[in-house]
From TrEMBL:
The chain crosses the membrane at residues 31-51, 58-75, 81-100, 121-142, 162-180. Keywords: Membrane, Transmembrane, Transmembrane helix. Residues 346-478 form the GGDEF domain. CDD domains: GGDEF (cd01949), PAS (cd00130). This is Diguanylate cyclase. The keyword Transmembrane helix applies.
Length: 487
């Protein structure tokens, strides 16, 4: 028996799941209509027993039969729209029999339940059916039972007024349904658009109520953080656990701004997802106060801004680095030079390196080979200097290297090591390409020389080296205006 009941319930639930959205809504309203009509019948039965000591006035047997018929259709759930119309029609039958048997004005008044309850569905067909049944039955009873139910001062010519009144009720019901449906459609459309927007930008909404000491978060938190929303509601402290350790101070600063500063707060920080992924989020919070100025709750949203932060980092990187080789560019090099001067990282040495016959590589093997060569040289130069030093691509086939805390001998050892390494060449598509370079060196023992001056000196000595043997280097004398060959 239990298995059969369980199978029946499963069957009924499956039928409900298979319904469309509108059909499900009508089915739910049918369930509530059954409850309302049952309560109406029970209340009428109770009132008649209490006042008239007679239950027959409400036709108990008829009412039970009609309710059972409606309950069967509602439980079946296959035809929600037809069940909706059946509910209105069964109510009409019940009221018709009560009025016909009682023939009292009090019973006649209950005809108004037809258009009133049909409005519950907000369905044009249901409203029209309820209105038509109300108008037609109202006119019929007024005409047939005029002498029995109505006062002597009324006459049959008043039937027209009854009809007009009923039609006004019908028109009002239809207009109300139209307005309500339009408002509902707009609300659903706006909700759908908002939901689509929130889902597309990964937004989580949160509220903290100080009265209940309770945190409430939206389902967007799970999509954004990877943790279930219920986790944060049960343990609000888990929010700080998912924030990157280096950014946790921002969370506490935000709380102070909203609670103590009584102002809105906007912070950007990193969060750690369960899978180890790091995401950037922007948190916007606002405090809310009651009429007495007491803080009652905090509300806000968190928005994923990972793509924007990555774009900003890319833009910042490209502003300070060469796009082809990834080496620092002239702007970054200038900042590093100024930093060394301010920190007193003396002596300073600037190496200006220019590749020999680089144009021949492009002409012989193509620009792809030239680009490959520049990338290889960038890696070589970076590996041959210390972490505190810097190599920069000035453009074309020119590189500049900044060395700190080295005397003349130390600088020359670096230069010779660079030239020796470059002389090994590089391989491109099975072909070994030879590499040679000319280097000009400018030396500043006390950092008194500016970057422009040292670049000019190193550039001049580099061109002087080019006029000599390939793979040569020259040193610009710090105390005189002529170059000297250093070997």
């Amino acid at each position: 028996m239990r298995n059969s009941q369980r199978s029946l319930l499963l069957t009924a639930s499956k039928k409900v799941v298979e319904m469309s959205k509108d059909a499900k809504l009508i089915h739910q309203k049918n369930v509530w209509m059954l409850v309302l009509l049952g309560c109406f019948f029970a209340a009428g039965l109770f009132m008649n027993i209490l006042i008239n000591r007679n239950a027959m006035a409400v036709q108990p047997l008829l009412g039970i039969v009609l309710l059972l018929i409606l309950a069967g259709f509602v439980w079946n759930g296959r035809w929600p729209a037809a069940t909706m119309l059946l509910a209105i029609f069964l109510l009409f039958i019940y009221l018709f029999f009560i009025i016909w048997n009682e023939r009292s004005f009090t019973s006649y008044i209950f005809l108004g339940l037809l258009p009133l309850l049909s409005l519950f569905y907000q369905n044009y067909v249901a409203v029209a059916l309820g209105g038509v049944l109300y108008v037609s039955s109202g006119v019929y009873f007024f005409y047939k039972l005029h002498d029995t139910m109505f006062a002597e001062r009324t006459n049959l010519s008043d039937t027209a007024y009854i009809a007009v009144y009923g039609l006004l009720i019908l028109a009002f019901s239809l207009i109300t349904t139209m307005i309500t449906r339009k408002m509902s459609y707009r609300a659903e459309h706006s909700e759908g658009r908002l939901k689509a927007i929130l889902e597309s930008v990964s937004v989580g909404i949160w509220t903290y109520d100080f009265g209940e000491m309770k945190l409430t978060v939206s389902d967007g938190f799970e999509q954004l953080t990877g943790y279930p929303a219920s986790l944060f509601e049960q343990s609000p402290e888990r929010i700080t656990d998912m924030i990157h350790p280096e950014d946790q101070h921002m969370f506490f600063e935000s709380q102070q701004e909203m609670i103590l500063g009584r102002t809105s707060s906007v912070k950007e920080c990193r969060i750690l997802r369960p899978d180890g992924e790091v995401r950037w989020v922007q948190s916007r919070g606002t405090p809310h106060f009651n009429a007495l100025g007491h803080l009652v709750r905090l509300e806000g949203i968190i928005i994923e801004v990972t793509d924007r932060k990555q774009l900003e980092e890319t833009i910042h990187y490209l502003a300070y680095h060469d796009e082809l080789t990834g080496l620092p560019n002239r702007t970054k090099f200038g900042e590093r030079f100024a930093e060394c001067v301010n920190k007193g990282d003396y002596p300073l040495a600037l190496l200006f390196l220019d590749l020999n016959n680089f144009k021949d590589v492009n002409d012989t093997y193509g620009h792809e080979a030239g680009d490959h060569l520049l990338k290889v040289i960038a890696v070589k130069l970076s590996s041959l200097i210390r972490e505190d030093d810097m190599v920069c691509r000035m453009g074309g086939d020119e590189f500049v290297i900044l060395l700190t805390h080295l005397d003349t001998d130390g600088v020359l050892k670096v230069v010779e090591r660079i030239l020796a390494n470059l002389s090994e060449g590089c391989e491109y598509r099975g072909v070994r390409i030879g590499i040679s370079a000319s280097v000009g060196v400018s030396f500043s023992p006390d950092g008194a020389s500016s970057l422009e001056e040292m670049l000019r000196q190193a550039d001049a000595t580099m061109y002087d080296a080019k006029r000599g043997t390939s793979g040569d280097y020259r040193f610009y004398g710090d105390r005189r205006n002529e170059t000297e060959r250093v070997r």
